[in-house]
Amino acid sequence: MRTYFRPYLAIIIVVMLLVFLEVMATLRLPDLMSTIVDEGIAKGNIPLIWRTGAVMLAVALGGVACAVLGNFLASRASTRFGRDLRYDIFRKVGQYSPRDFINFGTASLITRTTNDVQQVQQVFHMSMRMAMRAPLMAIGGVLMVVRKDSKLALILLGLIPVIAIIIGFVIKKGIPLFKSLQKKLDRLNLVLREQLMGVRVIRAFERRAHEQARFDEANRDLTETSLTVNRMMVTLMPLLGLLVNATNIAIIWFAARRIDLGAMQVGDLMAFLQYTMQIFMAVMMLSFIFVMLPRASASAQRIVEVLDTQVSITDPEKPQRIESSLGVVRFEDVTFRYAGAAASVLSNISFTAEPGQTTAIIGGTGSGKSTILDLIPRFHDPEGGRITLDGVDIRDLTQRDLRSRLGYVPQQAMLFSGTVASNIRGGKEDATDEEIKEAARIAQATEFIEEREDGYESYIAQSGTNVSGGQKQRLSIARALVRKPQVYLLDDTFSALDYKTDARLRQELAKSADQATIIVVAQRVSTILHAEQIIVLDEGRIVGKGTHKSLLESCSVYQEIVASQFGEEAVS
User: Which of 495, 553, 554 lies closest to 525, judged by CA?
Assistant: First the structure.
């Protein structure tokens, strides 16, 4: 975290200098006021009053100028600090693998990027101003009251231990509460995010009452902790205020006797009270910082956890280059299990996907079909064996180099807020309008795009909620097509399409990608009938490999799948 403050050292030093000048001006004003009262008004020295008043005005204006400029610089630095910190968190999270995401959870990462950064940013801003101003004001005020009347200053010295005990108690009680507060905020975000994303399921199954109860529980839990923290804060300030007023009463009581005896001037008493108020204002500022520090400390620790996490999928120190750009994908005895899983999801997977051919993967639910596709872009790394692309282990390639050769279409079609064109251009940033239209044509998306009022500039809502499931799939396929990759990874991407559109899309894809390697995960046998190689999975193992015709004769699992979709007569 310290490295984030280094770019702002120059601004911090300037702000500290401005704060020093502001404090000096503030401490000088009561002394000048004392001179006016005791030397000017009491003795009728009008010229002295004017001269000293002019000096007071100049000092006050100088202090205001330093305060305004210092606050401007502090605000500017703290805002940029928050911007840089949020960007680095976002960039770090972008490097996470799915396994790394699970360690934190989406809701917690959102809280850490927003609320936690805001807490640290606020304390950074206050530290540049209050953290220096308060000690200087307190120390300077004590020196000035001792200079004015050392005996009367003993009242203040006796009060300091009492204030220290109160602030120490608040800090001790506050640290665990602030940590708990951030965790409960994570929980509230998690429940809210689940309800917003699953609103259709909640309504369809009439789970609104249950979900409202979940939200109410998380909300009340956060509220109760917040109230406990706020009660401490609310109690602290009036208590310190009570001590200030009691101290002022004691000072006036004893000062009145000293004035009556001629040992003290009225102007000195007025200056003494002003210095006392300045000391207590400084103490209140320090107490406020001490109360905010535990929460900022808890937030900083949570941010550091994100930034210091060792990413599980990394680039090699000495990456290799692929000399031939063919697109041959080979699995060699690959085994994989998810973190915390008792058994392997894939065991001893070996096959080769050749350019110009379609390799299809089929099997029952949970057999590991999608996992095979996720291993190729290195969303996960295999536990055993290796995967090669044109003879090079994909772990020896940089992630950018590897993924630039792939066109991936996930099982759950994901669109981003923007336009139709911007979503397709997500596969290739510099794609021309002609390339976008060609990709849409192959993906069978041209018809519904041109029917929209703004065509390719039509608005797409977040997650594509304003288009149908089939339209989302076709736009996702177009996004992969526009980059013209060496290897296509299609994870059950035809499931939401009708048979006619499915057939036309596969026909156009075969023409445009005749030299590319196509790996398809499918549920429907009709989608893969003409694949040059079909791999049948059962419980993470390959139980059949061949064409549709050969598998009908040799693979019982494939026969069961065909029979379930076309009837027993299709097998016999």
Answer: 495
Same domain, 517 and 551: yes
Residues 476, 427: contact at Cβ < 8 Å? no
Q: Using CA atoms, how far apart are residues 346 and 383, in angstroms rounded to an integer?
A: 9
Assign 3-state DSSP to the chain and report helix, strand, coil percentages, each to 5.
65, 10, 25
Rounded-to-integer distance, Cα 332 and Cα 387, Å: 6
Classify residue 243: in a domain, yes or no: yes
The domain of 551 spans: 329-570
> What 8-state DSSP symbol labels residue 453?
T
What angle, 0 to 180 degrees and rounded to 10, lies between the N-to-C axes of helices 266-308 and 117-148?
Answer: 160
Residue 517: pLDDT above 80?
yes
Provide the number of structural domains found in the chain: 2
Q: Please state the rounded mean pLDDT for residues 499-504.
A: 82
Which positions ≥6 away from 388 have C-beta within 8 Å? 328, 329, 330, 332, 394
Q: SS3 of 361, please? A: strand
For residue 134, give the nearest of 281, 296, 318 by alpha carbon.
281
Measuring CA to CA, which residue among 353, 338, 403 is closest to residue 518? 353
Residues 292 and 364 in one domain: no
Give the whole-angstrom CA distance, residue 321 versus residue 327.
13
Candidates 493, 519, 483; CA nearest to 329 is: 519
Tokens (6 digits) for 384:
């055993």
Alpha helices in 36-45 (DSSP H): none
CA 413 centroid distance within chain? 23
- The Cα-based distances of 76 to 72, 73, 80, 123, 130 in angstroms read 6, 5, 6, 14, 16
CA distance 247 to 244: 5
Share of the chain above pLDDT 70, in %: 97
Taking phi first (over 0 means left), then psi (-120 to 50 degrees means alpha), and beta for anything else, what does residue 492 get?
A: left
Are 191 and 147 in contact by the 8 Å Cβ rule? The answer is no
Which one, of 271, 286, 293, 277, lies nearest residue 163 by Cα?
A: 286
Question: Is the pTM here over 0.70, yes or no?
Answer: yes
pLDDT band at 534 (very low <50, low <70, confident <90, very high): very high
Which pLDDT value is given to residue 40?
67
pLDDT tens digits, one per residue of 196-223: 777 777 877 778 888 888 888 889 988 9
| CB contact set of 527 (below 8 Å; sequence gap of 6+) | 360, 494, 502, 506, 520
Question: Residue 536's CB: how many other CB atoms inside 10 A?
Answer: 25
Under the phi-then-psi rule, with left for phi > 0, alpha for psi from -120 to 50, and beta for the rest, what region is 333? Answer: left
What is the mean predicted confidence (pLDDT) over 240-264?
78
pLDDT of residue 38: 66
Residue 5 vs residue 151, higher pLDDT: 151
Q: Which residue has the tokens 């000072």?
A: 251
Final residue before a domain boundary, out of 263, 279, 308: 308
- 366: tokens are 């949970």
Best CA proximity match to 397, nearest among 487, 328, 318, 486: 318
**Cα distances (angstroms) measured from residue 398 to each of 288, 315, 468:** 49, 5, 36
CB 46 within 8 A of CB 54: no
Residue 362: which CATH number? 3.40.50.300
